[in-house]
Structures are given as C-alpha cells and as structure tokens.
Design a protein that fits this description.
Layout lengths: L3 H14 L6 H7 L4 H11 L6 H18 L9 H10 L5 E3 L4 H11 L6 E3 L12 H10 L8 E3 L2 H10 L3 E4 L6 H6 L4 E3 L6 H4 L9
Parallel strand pairs: 1-2, 3-4, 4-5
C-alpha cells in the first residue's frame, strides 16, 4: 500500500505534540522499522532522554494518528496482480509488517481480497524490523524454511530483517529508499514496482534469469 506520506505526517504530528524536534527526511528514512525504535532515535537526535514507556506511548500515538488519516489508502501498482498470481499458483504468502494490529485493517481491506490474508504485525513479536523476528514468525506460520521463501519490501529495514532471517529479499523502489540503498542493505534483486514480480510468481521467470 502507498502509505509512506501518511505515515510521515502521522509521525511528524506526534513529535510536534511531544515537543520533539523532528526532521522530515530523518523520519522518512526510518519508516518501516520498529516504531519504538523510531521514537527513540528521533528523540535522542533531538537531545531528549528516552525510556521504554515513552517510546511505547509515542509509537501508539503515531499509530492512532495514522489510523485516523489512512482512510483511503492507495494500492501500489502490481500488488493485486502479484497476490492473485501467487494464489493461482498455490504459493503461500503472508503480510509481515512492523505496524500495530489496529493500523493494518484499512490497508488490508483496501486490497479487497477474496479471503483474509495471513498478517504478522508488530504485536506478534518483541522486536520488529530490522530484527528478523517478524519474518521468522511468518515463515513458521507458513510452514516454510526461511531460506526457501522470499521477502518483498521497500525499506532498508526490510532488507536488513530479511538478511538477518536468512531469507532472499526483493527491494521495491516505491518507498523512501532508492534501488542503490536497497541493494546495499542486502536486496538480492531490486525492481521499480511490483508489476515486475508477477512473472516470477507465475513461474515464467526464474532468479537465474536476472
């Protein structure tokens, strides 16, 4: 889902409420990582002390604002085609996101899928991305070996989490990270949008062809 700008706005508004100076580019670069970690890094950069409870409160508030703003999320190009191709070829898949559970529904509903997908969110693990916990949890849920799966993401935190999980990873340059940054963070392959991955899902193209 194309929620990057909405997430940035939610975080900046939260930090403004808390009297924490936050730079837009700094926040944009941290989107996709564990929200409590994001809160800590921004607070520390602003010269403010941080503790676990404050990080939790900031993360929760950012989630509340995001949910209020995320009323009409846009589906990224190729997303539905890719998911449908995976289903048609009986490939198991899941959504693994650092977001809190209550933030996920609007985006999932916007996909208008015929079935509720398997969703692994930040509440399922102690540490979200860039830790590998979310991806390892998803692999167990899908009953696959991490090295035999594949993770698709658009942030350097996605790439780092996948590398730590021992999972091949595809970087999609649709977020705040460039293809070069995604590659440097560990992407096995980078694409401009999800449409390019549909042939892989259909078995028409293999890794060795790229």
């Amino acid at each position: 889902m194309d929620t990057l700008e909405t997430r940035i706005v939610a975080w900046l508004q939260t930090f403004e409420e808390r009297g924490i100076a936050a730079d837009r580019d700094q926040v944009a670069g941290l989107i996709g990582s564990d929200g409590r970690r994001l809160a800590r890094l921004v607070a520390e950069a602003a010269g403010q002390a941080s503790d676990a409870q404050r990080e939790e409160d900031i993360d929760r508030r950012a989630g509340e604002i995001f949910s209020a703003l995320n009323v009409d999320p846009r589906v990224l190009p190729g997303a539905l085609e890719l998911l449908n191709a995976l289903d048609e070829h009986r490939q198991r898949w899941a959504i693994a996101t650092s977001s809190r559970r209550e933030q996920v529904d609007a985006s999932v509903n916007a996909l208008k899928l015929s079935r509720r997908p398997t969703v692994i969110d930040g509440s399922n693990v102690k540490h979200a991305k860039p830790a590998p916990d979310l991806l390892l949890f998803a692999a167990r849920k899908l009953e696959i070996v991490p090295s035999e799966g594949c993770y698709v993401g658009d942030s350097i935190w996605d790439m780092q989490a996948a590398v730590a999980a021992g999972m091949p990873v595809v970087g999609v340059a649709s977020g705040s990270a460039t293809a070069k940054e995604l590659t440097e963070a560990g992407a096995s392959l980078t694409v401009d949008d999800l449409t390019e991955l549909v042939p892989f899902a259909r078995g028409a193209v293999s890794w060795s062809d790229r």
